[in-house]
Write a structure and sequence with these properties.
The chain is α/β, with parallel strands linked by helices and about 110 residues long. The protein has helices at about 30-40, 55-60, 65-70, 85-100; strands spanning about 1-5, 10-15, 20-25, 50, 75-80, 80-85. The protein has one domain: Ribonuclease Z/Hydroxyacylglutathione hydrolase-like (Metallo-beta-lactamase, Chain A). The longest helix is centred in the C-terminal third of the chain and has 12 residues, at about 85-100. It is globular and about 35 Å long.
Length: about 110
């Protein structure tokens, strides 16, 4: 676990295992997050996803730009329901990382 920021001006922590790296909250600008990750010896491109604990500004300030720049999904909760932005993209990327073959699912008649 690497704490990048903790406090009312911004919160962000990297939690990792041997196979997965998650940025918990992105409460600083993308530029500041990247700077702090590199200073802590963390490689931003190694992140797999961003997990947002709640929607206060000091937890989400750099979320959108960071997720877009790194091409990673964001997971957060709305009224207790988990929402994942970019989930389909993430699954495809993970399949490619694992060397699995990805196939485009057949479209149903209702999808148009």
């Amino acid at each position: 676990m690497t704490v990048l920021a903790s406090g009312s001006k911004g919160n962000s922590t990297i939690v990792s295992s041997t196979t997965t790296r998650i940025l918990v909250d992105a409460g600083l600008s993308c530029r500041e997050l990247m700077k702090r990750m590199k200073a802590a010896g963390e490689e931003p491109s190694a992140l797999d996803a961003i997990l947002i604990t709640h929607e206060h500004q000091d937890h989400v300030q750099g979320m959108a730009v960071t997720a877009r720049k790194l091409g990673i999904p964001v997971c957060y909760w709305v009224m207790g329901i988990p929402i994942v932005l970019g989930a389909i993209y993430y699954v495809l990327v993970q399949h490619r990382r694992l060397g699995a073959q990805t196939e485009r699912p057949a479209r149903s008649a209702t999808e148009g």
